[in-house]
RNA sequence: GUGGAUGUAGCUCAGUGGUAGAGCCCCGGAUUGUGGCUCCGGUGGUCGUGGGUUCGAUCCCCAUCAUCCACCCCA
């Protein structure tokens, strides 16, 4: 039926009124958390030069090779809808001198775009909250980021439903060296590799370690281990990070196979996962990317960050029914008037009350209709009280207040008494 | 990019080779100015789209599109 009509692009979803309170609840928690930790929000454009992503994420990654929304601008420039937030954030920070002899703690939130097959928890337009820090070398800030996320799970009631996985990829040099060692090892056992793995040999050989193919298990177990090829500094860095987490009482699992897909990561990487969402179980992931700023033309600048997938977290909150009822918006008062004169008066009375009681959540009935239908609308609106303005009330300068949620007689009040009476009636 | 499942009313879904039904929702009435419960009535569908088979297709066949789930990849 909709086939001839225009509909939303595949994998790009409308956020409907029924859903938005949960998003607002989540976004509110995040904003509050960032404020409390002293992180500043940064907003960057959704479109960037294609080269920014190609240079940062890595030319041969799936994201850059086949998942980007890339198009030509009218002047022939190649532009891309951002597939992730870190590159833009680094670009903006550099461009405005935010990294010049100073540290930064930044966060952002917004849509990202990847042309993948949609499935549960994975969409072509999806939303991330990202956090990036610059200028901090030590493991303390790595730990701070993890503690910050842990606190968020705590406050959202998600802590028992997520697991923290940690790994270290070593310095860029150590990682590159290990990569060569690993590729050499896989070349030796080329016959044992499955089709996917042979393809990954050039794209992301570290990822082969993560293969679920049981036929390759023995060969993978015998492969050189990343942890054995870490440079001394990275090993110390990682040890210090886990020590802080131990002291803070944060549980984690060291997963030597945890490899982030983006080329720019080095040293600490981490992932929060859940088993409650089907196959897209990663809910938050990040790591250190000490080389990226320099790679994009800046001075060498240590950096760590992470991103959360908002859709996945919303899905999790939904399936676990973790949104508090109080976070759902509701009306205090529904104002209705019977007849033309009273309807007009109701609209003006509504404005008067909004002026006198700024906290009052009030809606005035529009569209006329019988008294009965208007009261039905009042009930449907979810308001606690209905204010009835009929011809009788209008003539007498009074209003009738009707309780819609509790057993309680309706009251007749003079209009003068209304402003002081309403807060009392709505208390508790 | 690959594989599987599913497309019938706004929503959730029945159904049959002879051009469609329920529940919820919505609207009206029973109650000249009083909701939630009940009862009565009503609006609403070219059965995803395009072909084919057939006297006749919502049903069978093919194609196509969309959605969902999984692989891949990732948040």
UniProtKB/TrEMBL annotation:
Residues 1-329 form the Aminoacyl-transfer RNA synthetases class-II family profile domain. GO terms for molecular function: ATP binding; histidine-tRNA ligase activity. It catalyses: tRNA(His) + L-histidine + ATP = L-histidyl-tRNA(His) + AMP + diphosphate + H(+). InterPro entries: aa-tRNA-synth_II, aa-tRNA-synth_II/BPL/LPL, Anticodon-bd, Anticodon-bd_dom_sf, His-tRNA-ligase, HisRS-like_core, HisRS/HisZ, HisRS_anticodon. SUPFAM superfamilies: Class II aaRS ABD-related, Class II aaRS and biotin synthetases. It comes from the Bacteria. Its EC number is 6.1.1.21. PROSITE patterns: AA_TRNA_LIGASE_II. Keywords: Aminoacyl-tRNA synthetase, ATP-binding, Cytoplasm, Ligase, Nucleotide-binding, Protein biosynthesis. One of its GO terms (biological process) is histidyl-tRNA aminoacylation. It is found in: Cytoplasm. L-histidine binds at residues 84-86, 114, 128, 132, 260, 264-265. GO terms for cellular component: cytoplasm. The keyword Repressor does not apply. It is an enzyme of class 6 (ligase). PANTHER family: HISTIDINE--TRNA LIGASE, MITOCHONDRIAL-RELATED, HISTIDYL-TRNA SYNTHETASE. Belongs to the class-II aminoacyl-tRNA synthetase family. This is Histidine--tRNA ligase. The lineage of its organism: Bacteria, Pseudomonadati, Pseudomonadota, Gammaproteobacteria, Oceanospirillales.
